[in-house]
Amino acid sequence: MKLLIIGPKSYENIALKEDAKKKGHDVLLVSIQSITLIIKQDTMKAYYMGKVMDDFDVCLFRGINPFFAKAKTLAKYFHFNKTKVIDRELYNRVYEFDKMFMSFELFQKNLPCIDSFHFSNYPEFKKYLEKIPRPVFIKDMQGMHGRNMFYFKTKKGLDEFFEKNRKKVSQYLIQRVIINEYYYRVLVIGNEVYGSMKRMSFLNKQRHETKLEDRSFTSELTKELKDLALRAAKATNTDIAGVDIIFDGDKPKLLEVNRSPKFKRFTKVMNVNVAGEIISYLEKLKPEK
């Protein structure tokens, strides 16, 4: 297999590259910024280091934010050239890297979602302020790995945040906070579930006093967690998914489906060679050539 990995030189991507090489595959890891696209004389070509990129069996996209538009273009290009592309939703249809878009994908498949609110401007937000339950999280619509996330207990704090960020209201998603000190990360690759890892939530009082590597624990993969994670991955057409689930009382709710999940912690805590499992999954994909 000739494998192209598009993404940064992260722990995960380097692990994927090394595991693919151990299995005898030809693999290239490149950043999305280093790829050039040229349309000339009725042809379109992608180049890296001056060479045409047209003979890969599989192309795996990882860590494409904030270059989402270019990633979609490249995905369509490689798919057109009969390369198997993962994440397939990049070329399959109109897909947006957006938390409300993801929430809608889950909602329309009758999956348990968290109450979410999105407003286009500050006046619209003010009209609905009284109806927004508290406490809430405010999340960057295109944020990743918990960045640009804010917690508010009061109506005043919530209002002051959006008043200060009037021009950026549409960039944020408001979600009701579920009071639970833990949530679960379930890893799905293809149609297989590889375990459930318990993690300290933002509300866990011990979280900020605990080292990052000690905030995750082994956990039983219950049938409820497994079934919900599989349904969420299928609903969003995600081949490699990190599904985050939190319990609201005894009812599971979907926090998020991560389409390009980090897996350094999962590998260590759950004793699963995630990189190897991903490469094994890619090996099974039949090239379209």
Describe the structure.
- This protein is an alpha+beta fold.
- It folds into three domains: 2-92, Rossmann fold, CATH 3.40.50.20; 115-176, Dna Ligase, domain 1 (2-Layer Sandwich); 182-283, 2-Layer Sandwich (D-amino Acid Aminotransferase, Chain A, domain 1), CATH 3.30.470.
- The chain is built from nine helices and 16 strands.
- The protein has helices at residues 11-22, 68-80, 89-92, 99-107, 122-128, 155-164, 223-235, 264-270, 274-283, and strands spanning 2-6, 26-30, 36-40, 43-48, 51-52, 58-61, 84-86, 116-117, 136-140, 149-152, 172-176, 182-189, 192-200, 216-219, 240-248, 251-258.
- It has a five-stranded antiparallel sheet, sandwiched between helices.
- Strand 3 (36-40) and strand 4 (43-48) form a beta hairpin.
- The radius of gyration is 20 Å and the shape is globular.
- The chain starts with a strand and ends in a 6-residue tail after the last helix.
- The relative contact order is 0.15.
List its salient traits:
Dna Ligase, domain 1; 289 residues; four-stranded parallel sheet; five-stranded antiparallel sheet; 3 domains; alpha+beta; single chain; D-amino Acid Aminotransferase, Chain A, domain 1; Rossmann fold
Topology, element by element:
Layout: E1 2-6, H1 11-22, E2 26-30, E3 36-40, E4 43-48, E5 51-52, E6 58-61, H2 68-80, E7 84-86, H3 89-92, H4 99-107, E8 116-117, H5 122-128, E9 136-140, E10 149-152, H6 155-164, E11 172-176, E12 182-189, E13 192-200, E14 216-219, H7 223-235, E15 240-248, E16 251-258, H8 264-270, H9 274-283
Parallel strand pairs: 1-2, 1-6, 6-7
Antiparallel strand pairs: 3-4, 4-5, 8-11, 9-10, 9-11, 12-13, 12-15, 13-14, 15-16
Helix pairs in contact: 1-9
